[in-house]
């Protein structure tokens, strides 16, 4: 490694051995090349592979597929391995944290005060969620076992539902009167 002291940058010297562009590492020229490979000794072909993705696999995991990678130069040995990096397609309904899922649900102020039952999205349809009376903004409720499969086990993660409150921006006359009455009752209690 050479260090340039004036600019304090690192430079790396690399020695690389490659095949000659004329002889292709064979030391001779083929005067009657094959029309398919044009004398290179290699033919490019496409192959369709089916890759089994294990349930619950983490984002960015590399799966190794033996002997499906590139062949060595001049066909001297077996083909290398192919690595497939797993990328998940995002689902707008959920955020992923390992095998757990997070979902935001917005409820009305009366439903937060009085409690309610909701149907929430899961990976397998919907599930019932009981929101208890007096639920505060940003409360997180858990649905056990409604997340993703855990990699390497038969269990599932959990689905966490974060509660957001919908505060009305525009009130009808009747709604305003009800909120005014509610405020006056709340002031008497406190």
Q: Main sheet?
A: 4 strands, mixed
The SS-based structural class is alpha+beta
CATH superfamily of the domain at 95-189: Urease metallochaperone UreE, N-terminal domain
User: CATH topology of the domain at 95-189, which one?
Assistant: HSP40/DNAj peptide-binding domain
CATH class of the domain at 95-189: Mainly Beta
Query: Helix amount, in percent?
Result: 10-25%
- Strand share of the residues? 25-35%
Name the CATH architecture of the domain at 95-189: Sandwich
Low-pLDDT windows of residues: 1-8
Shape: rod-shaped
Q: Roughly how many Å is the radius of gyration? A: 32 Å
Please report the number of helical segments: 2
The largest beta-sheet arranges its strands as 5-6-10-9
Would you list the SSEs in sequence order as H and E?
Answer: EEEEEEHEEEEH
Look at the structure and give the mean pLDDT.
Answer: 85
Span between termini: 74 Å
Total number of β-strand segments? 10
Question: What would you note in describing this structure?
Answer:
This protein is α+β, with helices and mostly antiparallel strands and 190 residues long. The chain has a domain of 95 residues: Urease metallochaperone UreE, N-terminal domain (HSP40/DNAj peptide-binding domain, Sandwich). The chain is built from two helices and ten strands, in the order ββββββαββββα. The strands form four sheets. It has a four-stranded mixed β-sheet with strand order 5-6-10-9. A two-stranded antiparallel ribbon has the order 1-2. It starts with a strand and ends with a helix.
List the helices and strands and how they pair.
Blueprint: E1 2-4, E2 9-11, E3 62-65, E4 82-85, E5 95-97, E6 100-108, H1 109-114, E7 116-122, E8 125-131, E9 140-143, E10 159-166, H2 173-189
Parallel strand pairs: 6-10
Antiparallel strand pairs: 1-2, 3-4, 5-6, 7-8, 9-10
């Amino acid at each position: 490694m050479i260090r340039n002291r004036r600019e304090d940058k690192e430079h790396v010297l690399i020695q690389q051995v490659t095949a000659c562009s004329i002889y292709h590492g064979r030391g001779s020229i083929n005067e009657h090349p094959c029309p398919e490979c044009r004398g290179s000794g290699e033919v490019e072909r496409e192959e369709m592979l089916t890759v089994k993705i294990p349930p619950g696999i983490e984002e960015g995991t590399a799966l190794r597929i033996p002997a499906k990678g590139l062949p060595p130069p001049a066909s001297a040995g077996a083909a290398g391995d192919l690595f497939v990096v797993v990328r998940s397609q995002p689902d707008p309904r959920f955020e992923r944290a390992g095998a757990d899922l997070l979902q935001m649900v917005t409820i009305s102020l009366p439903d937060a005060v009085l409690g309610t039952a909701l149907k929430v999205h899961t990976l397998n349809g919907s599930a019932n969620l009981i929101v208890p009376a007096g639920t505060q903004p940003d409360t997180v409720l858990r649905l056990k076992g409604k997340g993703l499969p855990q990699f390497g086990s038969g269990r599932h993660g959990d689905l966490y539902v974060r509660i957001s409150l919908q505060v009305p921006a525009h009130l009808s006359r009747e709604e305003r009167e009800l909120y005014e009455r509610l405020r006056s009752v709340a002031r008497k209690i406190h």
